[in-house]
Write the structure tokens for this entry.
Amino acid sequence: MKKLTVIIPTFNEECYLEKALYSVKFADEIIVVDSFSTDKTQHIAKAYNCKFIQRKFDNFSNQKNYALEYATSEWVLFLDADERITFPLQKEILEAIENSNYQGYKLNFPHFFMNRFLFNQSSSVTRLVVREQCYFEGSVHEKLIVKGGISSLKNPVLHYTYKGLEHYIKKKDTYAWFQAEQLLQKGKSVTFFQLIFKPFYRFFHSFFIRGGFRDGIPALAIAGVNAYGVFSRYAKMMLLKKGLK
């Protein structure tokens, strides 16, 4: 049988980590790459006999590429602490890696917000890959590069995305600083058109084009915060250019 390593990046995830680890205990190896947590994250990881490594956080790609160096299985699954692998998905993963003609698989992540899963606010992301055929690039919304064909699995990952509205807005603000710095490093500029049109389009795309309206008020809130996140990114670019961070 082909072996599977699960890699989970953490920072102060004591509220979420144990359930994530329990959901992937079928794996041959679990690696927790931690950014020097100050809560019980390390204690929880070691209770599950994980390979626990620590690295000072600089960006998401470097963190996960670092963990890849410690993986020993042919296949790797990347999971966040607030995500859970269901039993049907577990079976699908094991069948896929055993009989695969692909180098990677996309998993489906319906968002969880206001105590419900929003299946019209889901994301399809490559997370299951052949270890020697992949690497990450990008500092904020990191992209997993796979050398070879990619397919998709059907069963969803349970993703407890947001701890609440305040947490969601704070998360968007944190990402916005990273994104603003990355765009400036690439020589990008910001215009009032971007400040006005792009947030509006993000709201319209999230709520109407992707069918978020079918999920009601929770999807409306998500679309609004997503639009704010886009606006915040470009506003922060203007602040950084003026040295006002």
The radius of gyration is 19 Å.
